Every structure is written in structure tokens, then in C-alpha cells.
Amino acid sequence: MTEQTELERRYRRLLAWYPWAFREEHEQEILAVLMACAPKGQRRPALLESADLIRSGLWMRLRPRPPSSAPMVRAAVRLMYVGAAVCVANLAISIISLALNGPRGVTLRLGDRSQSLPVAITVGLVGCLLVVALWLWMARTTSQGRSWARIFSTVLFVLASLELISVASVSKMTLGLIFWAPTWVVSAASIWLLWRPASGAFFEMRRSGSASKEIVAAQS
Amino acid sequence: MQEATFMILTALAEQSQHGYGILTDVQQISGGRVQLRPGTLYTALDRLREDGLIGVDREEVVDGRLRRYYRLTPEGIKRLGVEAARLQAHATAALTRLNLAGGMAS
Asked: Which residues of B touch A69 (CB under 8 A)?
């Protein structure tokens, strides 16, 4: 295998960090630039270059994608990332308080003294990770302009609100409310943003297949 | 506007360029201070396309490799102009004050 094809193969492997749709459109082009930048005789991508490709690829997979022409949707997506961060923070606080106060605090917060501690922790951990995954998934699908994403988000918000009301009315778990309240506020704000008329225009645009890139192409 | 974004738009201000051309041009404009890597460049280009500031001008195949040329859109020209004017105003203010301070000290 020649040095060049070996280097190209390694670059291709690094480009796998990028989303499929992006690779489909830009892989050949980026490869050309990477190969043009490589000094003669180079067999492996440089460390910093590899790190840059991995970071950029991951960023493209995770970052909010709505264009600046849809600021409401962009803000809603950012709030969804905030929601995920709040869940992680809640989880961290629970773990820290467990470490500091011992098992008593946790069983009290879960409101079920009969539950054994390992089960309670597992349920709490899995539940929290599921909620984080839901937030990230909603952010992703909303960013892609899937109009069902905002309907689904709204349904989840209503369910979460009902849960909050039931928790508030049934028990006096003020700690539980403190945990839920920030999440609820973030959800409410993001749902409000998603149903603004300007956001509707973004979803309509994506639905009719005229993504911003094509508008740019049409402007030319 | 981030510096990398400003430099990329500046590189495209005069004529359309392909990825490698933008990298070398940005390096030249900044006197070697800003050295974009391909990963960062294409992340920025994708974002700029989504924001409607740049568009694809044409595509060529050179030595069996694809070259895509990018150019500024009317919106991109406007944004770069506004940002350049803003930076110039700041630079002028700084230089004016430095001169005044220098004048007082001497």
C-alpha cells in the first residue's frame, strides 16, 4: 500500500465521526483538502489534526442545527440541552447528597421507605439517564425540523406537568418539587418558543423540503 | 462574529475559493497567525451555508478529486461589511486614545 493511500484510508476512518449526510456531501472534498495539506511522505494523520476532525465530527452530530433565520427554534433547542444539563445536575446532586447524608436522605426523597436502597438508586439513575436521552433526542429531531418532534415534545410536557401536579398534591415532597421545577420551567419555555409563528414557518419550510441550503442556492 | 468566521468570509470577499484555497488565504491574510484546520473549516462552512452567508459557486474535479468553490451571498457581503465597519470603528477608537495618551505623556 502506498503512503498516500494509507494516509487517505486513515483520514476516511477519522471522517466516520461526521454525520452520514454530511459525509455523503463533503467527504471527497475534505479528503482532497486533507491530502493537499499533508506533507510529502506522511503516513498517519497528525495528532492535532485527528483531534480536530473528531471534535468537529462530534460537534456536527451533537450541535443545534437550526439556522440563524429561525432564532426561536434555535433558542428552544438550546433550552433542551439546558434541560438535559439540569437532569445531569440533579443526578450529581443526588449522588453527592447520598455520599454526604447516607441512605436516609435518598429513601426519603424517593418517598418509598420500603424500597431497598440499591433498587432505588438504580431506578433513579436509569430514570435520569432516560430523561437526559429524551431531551437530547428531542433537541436533535427538533433541530432537523421534524414537525412531529414539537408535537411529541408538547405531549411529553403535558405528561410531565400532570406528574408534577400529582407529586405536588399527593405528597409534601418539597425536595422533589425543587428537583422538578427547573426542568418544568425549561420545558415550558422551550414549548412556548416551538409554537411561536416564526417557529411554525421553520417547520413548514423543512417539511416542504426547501431547506435553507436550497434557498441559498436559489438566491444565487 | 468569531474570528475564524470573519477570516473565512474575508477570504471569499474578492472571489470564490475552494477549501484549500480558503485555508491558505486565511493564513496569508492573518500573517500566519490564524491557521485553520480542515475539520474546523468545514464545520464553519456548513454553518455559514445554513445561515445563508455563503453558497456553492461551482464544482470541479482536479486530479480525480472534487473541488467545491464557495462564494459570498448578498447576505454574506452585507454581514461582512457590517462586521468590518464595527471592527474598524473599535480599532480607530483604540488608536485615537493611544495617540492622545502618547501625546499627553510626551
From this structure: 51-52
B39 domain residue, yes or no = yes
Distance from C-alpha of A148 to C-alpha of A138, rounded to nearest angstrom: 10
Nearest by CB to residue A60, choosing from B19, B46, B68, is B46
User: To the nearest 5 percent, what fractions of chain A are helix, strand and coil?
Assistant: 80, 0, 20
Q: Domain count for chain B, please give it.
A: 1
pTM assigned to the model: 0.63
CATH assignment at residue B27: 1.10.10.10
Domain assignment of residue B106, yes or no: no
Question: Could B43 and A28 be called an inter-chain contact, meaning their C-beta atoms sit closer than 8 Å?
Answer: no
CB contact under 8 A, A33 and B43: no
Question: ipTM of this model?
Answer: 0.84
SS3 of A66-118: CCCCCHHHHHHHHHHHHHHHHHHHHHHHHHHHHHHHCHHHHHHHHCCCCCCHH
Query: Which B residues, 13 through 72, put their C-beta within 8 Å of a C-beta on chain A?
Result: 18-20, 23, 37-43, 46, 49-52, 54-57, 62, 65-68, 71
Could you tell me if A62 lies within 8 Å of chain B, comparing CB atoms? no
Range of the domain at B21: 3-101
* Residues B33-79 pLDDT 10s: 988 999 999 999 988 988 889 999 999 888 888 889 999 999 999 99
B106/A75 Cα distance (integer angstroms): 52
Q: Nearest to residue B14, comparing CAs of B71, B58, B65, B91?
A: B71
